Amino acid sequence: MGRMLNALSERSLELGPARNAEPTGHFRVARDDDGIVWMVLDRTDKRVNTIDRPVLEELNQHLDRFEREKPAALVIRSAKKAGFAAGADINQFVGASAAEIKAALEQGHQVLDRLARLSCRTIAVVHGHCLGAGLELALACDRRIAVSDASLGFPEVMLGLHPGLGGTFRAPAVADPIEAMTMMLTGRAMPARRARSIGLVDAVVEERHVAAAVEAAFYGDLRRKSPSLAGRALGFRPARQIAARTMRKKTAEKARQENYPAPFRLIDLWEAHGGDEKAMQRAEIDSFAELIESETSKNLVRVFFLREKMKGLKDGSSGVRHVHVIGAGAMGGEIAAWAAGQGFRVTLGDIRLEPIGAAVKKAAAMLEKVVKDPLKVRDALDRLIPDPEGLGVAHADLVIEAAPEKIELKHKIYAGIEPKLKEGALLATNTSALPLQDLASGMRDPSRFVGLHFFNPVSRMQLVEIVSHDRISPETARRATAFAAEISRLPAPVASAPGFLVNRALTPYMAEALVLLDEGIAKERIDRRAEEFGMPMGPIELTDQVGLDIALDVATSLRERLGEDTLPAAPDWLTRMVEEKRLGRKTGRGLYDYDGEGKPKKIAPEALPDGSRDDPDMVDRLILPMLNAVVACIDEKVITDEEIADGAMIFGTGFAPFRGGPVHYARQRGIDAIVARMRELAAKHGPRFTPHPGWERLKG
Fold this sequence. Notes:
Enzyme class: lyase
Number of helices: 29
Family: In the N-terminal section; belongs to the enoyl-CoA hydratase/isomerase family.
Oligomer: single chain
Region (Disordered): 594-614
Radius of gyration: 27 Å
Structural class: alpha/beta
Number of strands: 18
CATH architecture of the largest domain: Alpha-Beta Complex
Shape: globular
Pathway: Lipid metabolism; fatty acid beta-oxidation
Number of domains: 3
CATH class of the largest domain: Alpha Beta
InterPro entries: 3-OHacyl-CoA_DH_CS, 3-OHacyl-CoA_DH_NAD-bd, 3HC_DH_C, 6-PGluconate_DH-like_C_sf, ClpP/crotonase-like_dom_sf, Enoyl-CoA_hydra/iso, FA_oxidation_alpha_subunit, NAD(P)-bd_dom_sf
């Protein structure tokens, strides 16, 4: 039934009389028999629509004609299957001065103001993604009709900005002001029906009903919701002041103002000018132009381009349609569920039935949370097939092994499944530490063996390390990279080496935190200082999340393979905790104790006794060994591209995005300064802080 309903909803886009119109640039324009003009955005130079100066200039030229000819109504929509518009083209701001950006914004506002003032009714029809400047274009129209698959949002905060083409005043004017502000402050997109419930759009229809909805909007049968009492009250500054205090508090729980100023700036603008559209417009333009010149925005824009570069590593199709996952534990179950949610047929095997059942149950909960649409969740679960007999191995295009990290066990698994693999099938391992050369020993065809190292939880961690070895074929590496992109993950090609990139860099961060804890510094203070630097989670809490047993095993293995001078020895008490099964969050007790919801019980650092121990070197002791490991990986060709290394650390560890990545941060801070600082720390704390020789080569 779900598939039938989805098939029925798939119709070619209703473009009115513009369907057969010749493009006049980025638009196709035609008038129907009722005098309604359909203006269809269909950028000739891009796969998706973006809003930039050429589009706005062309729109302005059309408005000249509409003001003269006075059509009965104007309908604006997109001809791109992907959606209405993906927002502004961020490339137009790169390298531009604040004055140039401000002038461009003012011109853009003039165009949208003209659209908003047209004497005829203006109707935006949006489908798919309608984001940023695309949503601001729709907001300049009198009415908004959303197709049921539409997703609307303001992602500018992700770039260290807030909306800059009128969103700050038009969205709160038509929608519930608190909900509109929350959209802008969080950057989260909103599905069409939710957007209707808050007043952001006026109707939600299936594609086949678009023409009828346009007719209803034209004849006035499509009415806006009246503003609520609370919405009207927020037109007055005292009410906004109360709401703004709550917004600041909630925003501060997610981001520090000194690191991410944009959401706090937006709250200030709304509090001061929310009742005055013209004042808000002027303030929006000035603020946007200032923010885009900030280091935070420049670095977050850099992160945007890093993401695009990693997506661009995909070269052709993977050819994978059916995935078989071996091992239904925490990682295997999540990998299987995520792949099924992305449209792949997945069989999930394990030596026992219980883990498979538990994995399917967890998959349902994860998909409901991430996908939300009940029909799509059900379809994904239909694609996730329990396979205790392992029958899927013979039919799969890709087999992913996610068994425990024991090389003998993995060799046994490979020996059993390799003869069953069909021609052209890939065999992958999710190992986080074992050398692929060793895992491939004894294989009949190691050329099709690859590492696909996912990170936990798979549904939130965007990175997949594509791990090569000395006998992998280029085609296997290409297909594995393409598969990672096809399941909406970001691939990072790395060579097989101790810890690959991410674990090698993250382990010194976690290990040094345990040394600081052993020195008597409160765990809450350690975590707070790391979070102040910009890490999403402090190293003590992260160690608990990873699991003390796994953290100890990885650190011990890396120390053995890289040399004792590279990492501090684990404290004896950590080994005792592991023996006592105090393993962290998964057992409810670790370095922290945990409540019933799995949250750590922390004492605020401000509540610690006066004079409790601190270390002024703490942040550098935590962060610089991480940078040192990244430089070592670049120098040793574990990863060959600095930018991909930065992207991998941001998307795989959460390394402070507003700093642009560890290598970028090091270059901004100064390589010589970091090397000198590490030598100071080495003299004070030991050889683990010795700067890698690669720092000198990085300068070249």
